[in-house]
Amino acid sequence: MERGDFQGGQLAKATVQLLADYLDMTSDEAQFMRDEHASVVEALPDYPLGAFSGRGITILAGGKYSEIAATSLGMTRLLGSRLPVEIWMIDRVEAQEGWCDEMAAQGGMACRFISDYIQDMSAFSHHYQLKIAVIMFSSFAEVLYLDADSMPVVNPDQIFESPAYVDTGAILWPDYWQATESPYTPYITGQNSTKATLVPEIQTVDSGQMLWNKAKHWKSLCLSAYYNYFGPKYWYTLLTQGGPGWGDKDTFPTALRALKAKWTMIPHRLETQRYDDGTGRGMGSGMAMMQADPADDTKFRPLFLHSNFIKFSVRRLMCDLCIEDPSALSAEQRTKGQEVTFKGSVSNRNSNIWKQLNFGIRLFATKDQDGLNNMGRLDTELDMWRVMERVGCTGVFSEDGICRRTRGYLDKTFGLVASWEGGAERKCS
């Protein structure tokens, strides 16, 4: 099948004909894919009893993503979570020296490596394909999966007791747009007996956070693994067709629908966390997505902040000129012994947040911050900066210049100064 002329910019004008014309797929090709899909579904294995146990959080990190995950992990513990955490990376080359030991010393956290389970990674050309692997390989029977840049804003432990999860065993969160899947998709996946004749009214998924009960949904996870294994070549394009969101995200609901499984899509639209322009008003297209707590169907209560634009790594924010960690380099760069440097947002005048970081302005717009501070939390943004200060001043990601600039920002913006090694306290008035 070949790509046509459909562009994401035409999403609002999508018609069945426009969606149908994107892929040059014959009816014979669609029938072949339908037959192959049916064979895969028929062979899906049953849940392996005794292979997994307990509840926990699984995070996909590695390389520069580990710096971002350090903030998410810090927030998780600061908010009181006692769930065990598995931090997954492709292999040990992706692990910053000493970081896994640092995590283990804090208790309840451990590094895991995909290469211990998949020796030949040649078929995995995109990071998107790894998400399903870490969910399935994790030791937990019930998994809260988080992207490295998705962090809780309240203690997430109670999510496993939410009525929606208890009822269905799978919770997914919405993204911004409607699906642009091929009209052949429901036919190929066995949902329909013919090609679709209507524009699909299907909400896409933000897979930065997902909740799974493996025992209830093992076959759906296995089917999603099939979609992701062949994702870059077939399924990612079939499900998006040049629209936004090419990648793993919609393989999960597609697998659930194909198997007619019972699952929950959060009913609340996500809310956008925007930049502060210095007046408290939001500006621009946003810096992060707020996702709702499934415990409340009637009111939007933030549970996760998925930082899809600004990445809350203290190094990426507060570096003047930093040397990239070897774990974040490509294999070619490591082989050549290249030294790669980067500037953090604080030193990059082209950054959307350069002004805020240099003049002591909050990053989050006040009106959005009001919605984010809930459930007894006093100041979520301040919590995040306290975590980043600890990361930047102690441990494997620490550096004197980063620590100094971070504490200076805390002082100017929040009125905090360092009063103990690795921590900031509010100034005495």
Structural description of this entry:
- With 429 residues, this protein is an alpha/beta fold.
- The protein is built from 16 helices and 17 strands.
- The protein has a 7-stranded mixed beta sheet with strand order 5-4-3-6-9-8-10, with helices on both faces. The chain has a 4-stranded antiparallel beta sheet with strand order 7-13-12-11.
- Helix 3 links the parallel strand 3 (55-60) and strand 4 (85-89).
- It is globular and about 65 Å long.
- Mean pLDDT is 87; it is low at 1-12 and 425-429.
Key terms:
429 residues, seven-stranded mixed beta sheet, 17 strands, 20% strand, disordered N terminus
Could you give a quick summary of the protein structure above?
The chain has 429 residues and is an alpha/beta fold.
Write the layout of secondary structure elements.
Layout lengths: L1 E2 L12 H7 E2 L2 H16 L12 E6 L3 H15 L6 E5 L9 H8 L2 E5 L17 H7 L4 E6 L2 E3 L10 H6 L1 E9 L6 H4 L14 E11 H16 L1 H10 L10 H8 L5 E2 L5 E6 L5 E11 L9 E5 L7 H5 L3 E2 L7 H6 L4 E2 L11 H6 L6 H7 L7 H14 L6 H15 L1 E5 L2 E4 L3
Parallel strand pairs: 3-4, 3-6, 4-5, 8-10
Antiparallel strand pairs: 1-2, 6-9, 7-13, 8-9, 11-12, 12-13, 14-15, 16-17
